Amino acid sequence: MSAEAEDAAQLVKRTGWFIFSCGCASALATDLDIKLATRLRTMAIDVFDRDPHALMLEWREWERMALWLEEQELRITQVRQRAAGPLGLFGIRGSMLAAELGRARMHAQRLALLVRGEELERLASEGRLL
Amino acid sequence: VSAECPACRALPEGASTLIASLAYRLGGATVLARAAELPLLADALLGLQGVLSDLHLHMRPSDGRAILHALRGFEAIFADLAVSEFDHAGLEDLRGALAAAQAAARRIADLLERPPLFAEAGR
Prior knowledge:
The complex is a heterodimer. By secondary structure, chain A is an all-alpha fold. Chain A has 4 helices and no strands.
């Protein structure tokens, strides 16, 4: 496999896990009856709907998604901590949801790095880097 | 399908979106299987997602059928469990999630098996 195809394989694989994590988080959010579920589903399917190649998503877009996921993770954690009891308001499902949002965020961050790395490499090869 | 994208070059139009949908459905079913205390089913679904991620680049028609076959196998095991001592309300959601994953897998298999000429005419 060429280096180019290997990079593409990495991106595809990572994107698959990102979408899987969104599915996990969405199922947990549905169970907890919070709006997050719909947004997660839209985000996961949008990744491919907007551009069927996903690989062409800019690193900034992945970073934006990672930031949004981090915000949600924080929100869930804060709500859980404000409520009484060792597991807070959402119970064990809330803790699982925060963990799953964290996993999706990690995939998005890695995807941003991968795409950014490729972009920098391309700019360097074209002599467009200072 | 972009000619510049080595990952998607071999896939028919629409396959990527369906694969995304299947990955998402598998995620939902995995969580529901865990909640229903069916760890083996959850692990199997997790494994299937791993296979899907690996295959995506060079997915062949037989791979689409293999995924569908695996999901049908899970459903058969699940149907046995559902009538046993595991039966409770959460299993209905899991049944729905497995059916949705199967529907996505079936559409992928159909799309990959469609003759190229037919696919071209449909564009």
